[in-house]
Design a protein that fits this description.
With 451 residues, this protein is α/β, with parallel strands linked by helices. The protein contains 12 helices and 14 strands. The strands form 4 sheets. A 6-stranded mixed sheet has the order 8-11-12-5-13-14, with helices on both faces. Strands 4-3-6-7 form a 4-stranded antiparallel sheet, with helices on one face. Strands 1-2 form a two-stranded antiparallel sheet. The two termini are 39 Å apart. Bound molecules: adenosine-5'-triphosphate and magnesium ion.
């Protein structure tokens, strides 16, 4: 299970972007992580460019999303600069992908909560998820930013497979704003501090990292001078051995996975579905995947040494705090709560708390906002003010995934509605087709009850 923190490592306004290093997170790599511009090509970049040159040989492809055929040469590959080799491709006509979910499964023990979900969310979309209680809507949302780790499958967010254990999830999570049913504000901090907390933390921790890195540059270069080349030679040999081991483990795992998958059965207990597999094969699969992951991790951590140069420090802790404070003031003015900046959340109404929670998420400048029933804990007269704010944010072009029971709101704001039941997306469509001509009997039955 990943460690979940609010700690974030980047704040766009400060131009202190840590190099997106998917594969390297060891000590040495930290030292070598670029801040702001870094010329090094990351492993994922090279995977993408390799993929790009592969594609140059082919003229026509079929879009994985809409099924249309398209010519490869004119396709804009810019989005996929960090896309893993496993990511599929779209024609561009159906939009720029932001989240691509592939075969996502989530189990709590034996309880199958998400059953092999594949879905793509495009930039600017407002995807509304509805469905009966216990159908897995919240779990779906939590898996999207790995608050819950999926049991199986891939989630490509902004080109990076965030379900991959090698990815620095906190770095990715800061690009996703999450709003919960119960606000989750810190009661011991004023409203303004709640908004400032994460951006200041990220700004300052990036600044510290940069200063630490610069301080270690002379030592790094001194060590490199005497041991660098021999270290790199020894490392190269080791990596070769690990790679051979990975190939061997993969060739053992591949047929085993097929055999294991073929033993899948669904057990229904008390109206819930449980996935069951052969126990011996499951144990063998876990042993092999564990060994494979450990060996792959060793390869990823094997960072060769090189000489480094100091990077410029363009900001200070004081300036970061001032800038975030000004941002918090602007956000509070936007929701008409400037006079509440110094009060504690316990003195706010539910609607005010939720609006603060929304702007707190916006302060991180996210690429997508995830809402889990943002109005269901509110008194009816406060629902409107929160929905109005969400509509405003939606109209500004923000990509959104919203779990809600507010059908009128879903129809008004949603560009696509998904119906989830028993861990599957049973039907989806534009609001009009979805609500006016539902097809799946389970959706028809659900809409009869809620409309
Ligand atoms: N941490 C957990 N441990 C065990 N089971 C869980 C956990 N979280 C959720 N579940 C189970 O997973 C299933 C789906 O839960 P989830 O909260 O995703 O449903 P939901 O569609 O959001 O329901 P609601 O509309 O009531 O919020 C439920 O059966 C729930 O009991
Ligand atoms: Mg829920």
């Amino acid at each position: 299970m990943r460690k979940v923190t609010n700690g974030q490592e980047e704040f766009a306004d400060f131009n202190l972007t840590e190099q997106t290093s998917v594969a390297k997170d060891g000590e040495l790599c930290d030292l070598q992580a670029g801040v702001a511009d870094c010329d090094e090509e990351s492993p994922s970049d090279s995977a993408a460019s390799a993929k790009k040159s592969d594609k140059a040989d082919t003229n026509v492809s079929e879009c994985e999303s809409c099924g249309e055929t398209y010519a490869d040469e004119d396709t804009d590959f810019s989005f996929r600069t960090a896309v893993s080799e496993n990511a599929e491709e779209s024609c561009g006509a159906c939009g720029t992908e932001l989240i691509r979910i592939r075969n996502m499964t989530k189990k709590f023990g034996d309880l199958l909560v998400l059953d092999d979900i594949s879905e793509t969310i495009y930039e600017g979309e407002k995807v509304v998820v509805i469905g009966p209680s216990g159908s897995g809507k919240s779990t779906f949302l939590h898996c999207l930013n790995c608050l819950e780790d999926p049991t199986a499958g891939n989630i490509f967010f902004d080109g990076v497979d965030i379900a991959d254990f090698k990815v620095n999830i906190n770095e990715q999570r800061q690009k996703m704003g999450m709003v919960f049913q119960h606000f989750n504000l810190f009661d011991n901090m004023t409203v303004k501090k709640n908004i400032m907390l994460a951006p200041v933390h990220i700004g300052i921790s990036n600044l510290r990292k940069l200063k630490r890195r610069n301080a270690l540059v002379p030592l790094n270069n001194f060590i490199y001078k005497f041991f660098g080349e021999s270290h790199n030679r020894a490392l190269e040999k080791k990596v070769k051995l690990y790679k051979n081991k990975v190939d061997k483990l993969k060739s053992e795992l591949e047929p085993l996975l097929l055999e294991w998958e073929s033993t899948k059965g669904i057990k229904e207990v008390a109206g819930k579905s449980f996935a069951v597999y052969d126990k011996k094969l499951t144990a063998k699969k876990l042993r092999l995947t564990d060994r494979l992951e450990k060996t792959e991790r060793k390869i990823d951590h094997a960072a060769p040494m090189s000489t480094l140069e100091k990077l410029p420090v363009e900001t200070s802790a004081k300036r970061i705090k001032q800038e975030v404070s000004a941002l918090a003031d602007r956000l509070l003015a936007r929701i008409g709560l400037s006079d509440k900046a110094d009060v504690y959340p316990s003195n706010l109404s539910g609607g005010q708390k939720q609006r603060v929670a929304i702007v707190r998420a916006l302060a991180m400048n996210p690429k997508v906002m995830l809402f889990d029933e943002p109005t269901s804990a509110l008194d009816p007269e406060m629902v409107g003010e929160v929905l109005d704010l969400i509509k405003q944010v939606a109209n500004e072009g923000m990509t959104m995934v919203i779990v809600t029971h507010e059908m009128a709101f879903a129809r008004e704001v949603g560009t696509r509605i998904l119906f989830m039941a028993q861990g599957k997306i049973l039907e989806q469509g534009t609001p009009d087709e979805f609500f006016d001509s539902p097809k799946h009997p389970r959706l028809k039955e659900f809409l009869k009850k809620v409309l």
